[in-house]
Structures are given as C-alpha cells and as structure tokens.
Amino acid sequence: MSNDWDVLVVGGGVAGCAAGIFLAQAGLRVLILEKGGHPRHHVGESLLPASMPILASLGVSMQEMATRYQPKHGARFSDSTINRCETFSFSAPGDPPPAFQVTREEFDAELKSRCLASGCRYEENCPVTTWRPIDGGVEVFTADQQIHRARFLVIAAGRSRLNCSTADGVSDARDISNRFGHLAIYNYFSDLPPAVEDERGYITVHLIANGWIWCIPLRNGDTSIGVVLKGDSVRRGVDHREQFDWALRGCPDLHDRLKGLLPRDEFRAAADYSYRSSVRYGDGWVKIGDAGGFLDPIFSSGVHLALNSAQLATRAIIAHLSNGDTAGFEAFRQDMDWAEMVFEAFIDRFYNRDLVRQLFFADYRPPYMKAAITSMLAGHVWDRTNPVIAMFAGTRDESSPSERASTK
Ligand SMILES: Cc1cc2nc3c(=O)[nH]c(=O)nc-3n(C[C@H](O)[C@H](O)[C@H](O)COP(=O)(O)OP(=O)(O)OC[C@H]3O[C@@H](n4cnc5c(N)ncnc54)[C@H](O)[C@@H]3O)c2cc1C
Predict the structure, then answer these.
(1) Which residues pair with 99 in a beta bridge?
(2) Which atom of ligand 1 is closest in space to residue 142's alpha carbon?
(3) In 3D, which of 29, 35, 311, 34 has the Cα closest to residue 149?
(4) Exposed, middle or buried, 408 (CB in 10 Å: 0-12/13-18/19+)?
(5) Which residues of the chain have a pLDDT value below 50?
(6) How many CA atoms are closer than 13 Å to the CA of 89, on its beta-carbon side?
(7) Do the domains 72-97+181-271 and 5-45+103-175+274-342 match in fold?
(8) Which long-range contacts (CB under 8 A, 24 or more apart) does 362-367 make?
(9) Given strand 275-277, what is the order of strands in its sheet?
(10) Is 286 exposed, middle or buried (0-12, 13-18, 19+ CB in 10 A)?
(11) Within a 13 Å sphere around the CA of 7, how many CA atoms are in the beta-carbon half?
(12) 141, 129 in Cβ contact below 8 A?
C-alpha cells in the first residue's frame, strides 16, 4: 500500500502536538488534523514540574516560558472553616521556576508552532469523522470528505469521541467513573486581592463542603477560578453563574475577595469528565492524552499525562515503524495504567476519604511524608520509591521501617 503519511494524528492539542513533534524529530512524515483552530480557549492552566523536561525536549525553552507565564512554585490546600492551610513548595526561594501557570490559548498555540517548525503538516478546521483499518495502515475520513492514508494512527482528540463504528469498535470504548467531581464551572477574574503575599506563585485549592475551588493566578493579572462540585451537590436546572456563586459562598474568604470583581468571560462548564479507556492501543492505532482517559482536575495531572503518553507512545510507534517491533505498546500501556492508578488512588482519597484533612493537614505526620506528597504533587508519579505512592498503589506497607529510614 502506498501511504500519504507515516503517522496521522487526530487532534492538535497538547498530546497531539507533542506526539507530532517527537515523530517528526525521528524523521517521520506526520499529518495532524485539528477540528478547530488556534488560538482557542482551553481549561487547564496549572502545569507540573515533572512536565518541564518533556517540554524542553519538544523545544519549549524554560527561559521563554518564564517570560510568558506565571511561575508556579507549588500547591496550597486551604480549608477556611477550620482555618488551616498547607503549602507544598516545589523549589527553594531563588531557584528557577519549577513550573508555570499558563494561558492555554498561548501555550497550545506555541505547541502548534513547534509542530510546524519540526516539519509536521498541521491542518486546522478539519474534524475527523471516522477511520478504518486497511491493509498496512489506516484510512481517515474528514468532515469535508477528504480521505487520508497513513501507516499509523494516533488518536489525540481529547475528551471528544470519534465515531469508530466502522473501525474495530474498541478504540472508542470508555469506562465512565462517577466517584469524583461531576461539574466544574469556571471563569477568569482580574485583580483578585491576594490573601497572602506570594499567592500568585501557587495554585490554591480551597476545600468546600460540596467539593473544592481552584485559584490559578496567571501572568496577565487574571486568576482562573473554578468550582468543582460533587455529583450530589449539582443543582439541576440552575445556570452556571448562579451555581458558581452558590458554591463560592462555601469559601467566605474567597467570596469576599471576589466581591465587586467582574468575570472576564462567560461562565464555562465541564461535566461528567471522569473516564478511563479499556483499551489503549490496537493494530495500527494508539490513544494518548485525554483520549486515553481523564480522571479529575484536582491534582493538575491532565497536561502531564498528555505529554507523557505522547512521549511513551511515540517511542513505541517509532520502533514499530522502523522494525515491526510491537513490544513498546505494551510497555506504554503498563506505564500509563500505573500513572492513572496512582493518580486515581490519590483522587479517590481526596473525594472519598478526606485526604487533605487526614494527611495534608495531619499534625502528626511521619517526617518523610511531606517530601513524598510534594513529589507526588509535582507529578513524579512513576517514582516507585516514593513511600506515599507505593502505599497508595498497594505495594508498600505504610509502617515499613526500612523505607522510613531511607527517606528521612
Ligand atoms: C475542569 C478541568 C480543569 C482542568 N485543569 C487542568 C490543570 O489545571 N492542569 C492540567 O494539567 N490539566 C487540567 N485539565 C486537563 C487538561 O486540560 C487536559 O488533560 C489536556 O488538555 C489534555 O490534552 P489533550 O491533547 O489530550 O486534549 P486537548 O487539549 O483537549 O486536545 C484535543 C484536541 O483534539 C481536537 N479534536 C477533538 N475531536 C476532533 C476530531 N474529531 N477531529 C480533529 N480534532 C479533534 C480538539 O479540538 C482539541 O484541540 C483540566 C480539565 C478539566 C476538565
């Protein structure tokens, strides 16, 4: 079969662009088909330190990031009802920024520019409608009746679903979860008066009875504020603004600080976003980023998993297309399953076992615990020596003395 492309990527968001760049760096011919165009709005401004090396390998320089985006030094968890706040700092004062809080319009558009610079072809306003396996590759159909052929397909279409009824029937399969947050409503506010001096350098998670609220300060002076409600707290038939205001009253400090500030945009919402993919890859295709699963925004894991899944999957694709080796796909699946399992364990404890009050605010915490939590919050999710990760993953006894000694 003569293919037009080595790899066709559906979706030109974070995962799709990262995959495109890695594949083009390996000399492959890559076509990215993107439903919309850039710049475009996207939620998800808080990045993790562990993502920075991957961004650097995509050509996104940390120096440039520092001129464009708000440096992020760590994460804070606050519960004003019991007057507690715990800060987890990713770096020491004076260190270079360990991560950033980004405007996604700019950040995602920058990744697209990197794709073009690396030699990918990137077509905007080109929604893919379906695809099918063919001899030696895949055939991909777009809304404007184009047909593209490639040796391999990367599905990076985010939370949107592709219609795979004409394909193998499994690449669209999802296990929906309803154990976490159900509805996020968010907007952007200028000139939020800070509660503490260094507030802009941190994501702050405010606990409320019905869920939680994120505050992510951005470099342009705006703060991204989103309320996340548990399923039983969602008030059906109430508009986004009213529901946002109602949830905000659960955090009187933030409610007071927002008085008189006008939202910059319309109130946007994302609902029922937690799912996992039962199958991550098949013959001639792989799913990465949100297309492979999205759990919950509480630990800002989305972009990190999107970048990592792109890196791991493209290593497997490059090996496969050069020598027919398929072993890399199973390694990719295992690595992504591990990361999701770890994040899921944390998220589950956050929603269902009072993680913040029990562990983050605990008065009597083993000394190693804070560093272990900080490392996890920084995104080092594959660090199996992290005692908290090992404990939550069920591979470590919490009271193991040897591990405590070695991590002190
Ligand atoms: C409420 C909420 C808050 C979040 N906060 C954070 C955060 O603070 N930090 C963080 O890291 N993550 C956060 N996330 C998650 C994060 O935004 C995503 O995980 C990340 O953007 C995933 O990247 P992606 O490339 O997989 O998907 P996307 O970035 O969504 O990209 C998918 C692309 O595919 C395109 N597409 C879709 N269908 C088609 C089609 N049929 N044909 C062609 N193109 C198509 C879309 O237009 C889009 O550009 C949050 C998510 C939610 C829901």
Answers:
(1) 72
(2) 42
(3) 29
(4) exposed
(5) 1-2, 165-167, 397-408
(6) 10
(7) no
(8) 366/404, 367/408
(9) 174-176, 275-277, 293-294
(10) buried
(11) 35
(12) yes
Predicted pLDDT at 397: 45
Which one of 294, 296, 311 would you pick to mutate in the ligand 1 pocket, going by the greatest count of ligand atoms within 8 A of its CB? 294
CA geometry: angle 221, 270, 103, nearest 5 deg? 25
Q: What is the pLDDT of residue 215?
A: 98
Determine contact, residues 330/159, Cβ cutoff 8 Å: no
Domain 72-97+181-271: which topology?
A: D-Amino Acid Oxidase; Chain A, domain 2 (3.30.9)
Phi, psi of 217 (to 5 degrees): -70, 140
DSSP label at residue 102: -
Closest atom, ligand 1, to C-alpha of 304: 11
- Angle in degrees, 0-180, between the axes of helices 302-323 and 14-25, rounded to the nearest 10: 30
Secondary structure letter of residue 263 according to DSSP: B
Residue written as token pair 């715990």: 86
- 10 Å CB burial of residue 92 (0-12, 13-18, 19+) is exposed
Annotation: CATH topology of 5-45+103-175+274-342: FAD/NAD(P)-binding domain (3.50.50)
**Ligand 1 geometric centre to CA of 2 (Å):** 32
Query: Across-strand partners of 271?
Result: 183
From residue 213, how far is each of 57, 159, 181, 224, 275 by CA, in Å? Answer: 33, 22, 11, 10, 21
Q: Name residues contacting ligand 1 (CB within 6 A).
A: 10-16, 33-36, 42-47, 127-128, 156-158, 160, 162, 184, 226, 270, 273, 289-291, 294, 297, 300, 302-304, 306
Residue minimizing CA distance to atom 1 of ligand 1: 184
Q: What is the pLDDT of residue 404?
A: 35
Give the pLDDT confidence score for residue 398 in this predicted structure. Answer: 44
Element housing 34 (H / E)? none
In this prediction, residue 173 carries a pLDDT of 67
d(CA 153, CA 140): 9
Kindly report the backbone phi and psi dihedral angles of residue 265, in degrees, each rounded to the nearest multiple of 5, phi listed first: -125, -175
Can you give the residue ranges of every domain in the chain?
Answer: 5-45+103-175+274-342, 72-97+181-271, 362-407
